[in-house]
């Protein structure tokens, strides 16, 4: 009964959950989850079982389901069962069977918790899985060879907001011995013997081969996981302090001074952590470092973002849609909504006119306005007469002179009337439409966030 005491001590020591919490146990019917059920039931925790039938092993999958149904009946606890067409979903999403099954499983567990919060007086609070110490070792060894960095060496998370793994302290050998001593029945997944799945290959071949040379390899990795968790904590504190100093948020973008970044050490690790939240890979770290010495305009792409070199800055910004729809404005005293902004148009009397320093407000002489107006992104070849200048200027040249970054250039809008640009939005109006002493009516344009 030593495992029962260790289980309770582990829960209390790490404050995983409380006696009054309702727990959703992920139960496949295998050794690990069967022991988890026995432990929770023996200690009188309030449990509900959830079983996934992935329909991957024909009659064997159905036999596992029947076993878990019988287990729930024997323990007098509620049970949820769900079937998945895993092979078809994996093919449709172009993912591995392992990844697909994992995503389907956790998505369903989360849905069960959400439904319970809506329908039950005492809702289910946590999902419990039966991952144990050997699973942790396998994960870390796989991550090491996969190259996931320091976080990959800290092991499986013990507790996440809704997910708890209370058996990480116990080895497979301890669970097997406990099941034997207490006559705990369980099913054996025949696919565990196959190396078709990556984890099985590490479990069945790689780690046993290492243990032939280093008998204590599993325990050594477990001790290293504890050390690496401490190291990772210190590492992330340092990295966050650096990023707070060098990263300057600017709307949806982040600006980083090139010279400041170049002076940082260790540069590769800082660049990697700086880029990781924006879906850049570890392999792209070198490409980003090369940007520090590149010409303006060079960039590196992720699936969602771009890092652009712009003079003495690196700019990280979301990828923008290739085009923006033109918005036709039929009349004044109207609001045009687009993306996450809106444009307010209002006629005002000259007596109410005050020059505004707000770059998102423009006032023009209404007598020169011909409707409909057109709101669109600027394009090459566009020109206007910037306020205060007697001759026309291409918008591309104007934006360069204003030192607008390449990423910000892509988002610059213009408003045109009768094929004449009246306002480069957020920058300057056209001199031909300025308010003068003879102006009788003023059109006020105001760009605001939604």
TrEMBL record:
GO MF, any single term: tRNA(Ile)-lysidine synthase activity
Subcellular localization: Cytoplasm
Highest taxon listed in the record's lineage: Bacteria
One Pfam family from the record: TilS_C
SUPFAM superfamilies assigned: Adenine nucleotide alpha hydrolases-like, PheT/TilS domain
Domain Lysidine-tRNA(Ile) synthetase C-terminal residue range list: 373-445
Name of this protein: tRNA(Ile)-lysidine synthase
Name of the encoding gene: tilS
């Amino acid at each position: 009964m030593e495992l029962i005491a260790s289980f309770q001590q582990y829960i209390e020591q790490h404050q995983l959950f409380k006696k009054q919490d309702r727990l959703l146990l992920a139960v496949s019917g295998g050794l690990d989850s069967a022991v988890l059920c026995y432990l929770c039931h023996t200690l009188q925790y309030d449990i509900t079982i959830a079983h996934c039938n992935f329909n991957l092993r024909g009659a064997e999958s159905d036999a596992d389901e029947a076993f878990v149904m019988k287990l729930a009946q024997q323990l007098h606890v509620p049970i949820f069962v769900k079937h998945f067409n895993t092979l078809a979903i994996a093919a449709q999403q172009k993912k591995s069977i392992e990844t697909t099954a994992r995503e389907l499983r956790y998505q369903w567990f989360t849905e069960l918790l959400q439904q319970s919060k809506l329908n039950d007086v005492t809702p289910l609070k946590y999902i419990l899985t039966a991952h144990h110490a050997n699973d942790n070792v396998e994960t870390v060894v796989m991550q090491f060879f996969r190259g996931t960095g320091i976080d990959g060496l800290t092991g499986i998370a013990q507790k996440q907001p809704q997910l708890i793994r209370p058996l990480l302290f116990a080895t497979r050998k301890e669970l097997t011995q406990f099941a034997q001593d207490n006559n705990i029945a369980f099913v054996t997944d025949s696919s565990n013997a196959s190396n078709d799945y990556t984890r099985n290959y590490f479990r069945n071949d790689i780690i046993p081969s290492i243990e032939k040379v280093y008998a204590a390899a599993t325990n050594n990795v477990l001790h290293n996981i504890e050390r690496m968790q401490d190291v990772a904590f210190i590492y992330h504190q340092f990295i966050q302090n650096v990023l707070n100093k060098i990263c300057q948020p600017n709307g949806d973008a982040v600006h980083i001074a090139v010279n400041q970044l170049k002076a940082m050490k260790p540069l590769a690790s800082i660049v990697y952590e700086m880029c990781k939240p924006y879906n850049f890979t570890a392999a792209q770290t070198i490409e980003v470092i090369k940007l520090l010495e590149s010409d303006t305009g060079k960039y590196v792409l992720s699936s969602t973002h771009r890092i652009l070199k712009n003079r003495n800055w690196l700019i990280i910004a979301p990828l923008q849609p290739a085009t923006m729809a033109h918005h036709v404005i039929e009349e004044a005293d109207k609001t045009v909504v687009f993306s996450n902004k809106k444009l307010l148009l209002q006629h005002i009397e000259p007596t109410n006119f005050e020059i505004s320093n707000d770059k998102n407000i423009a006032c023009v002489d209404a007598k020169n306005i011909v409707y409909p107006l057109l709101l669109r992104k600027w394009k090459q070849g566009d020109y206007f007469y910037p306020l205060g200048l007697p001759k026309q200027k291409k918008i591309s040249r104007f934006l360069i002179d204003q030192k607008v970054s390449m990423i910000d250039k892509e988002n610059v809008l213009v408003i045109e009337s009768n094929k004449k640009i009246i306002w480069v939005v957020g920058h300057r109006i056209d001199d031909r439409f300025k308010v003068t002493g003879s102006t009788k009516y003023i059109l006020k344009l105001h760009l605001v966030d939604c």
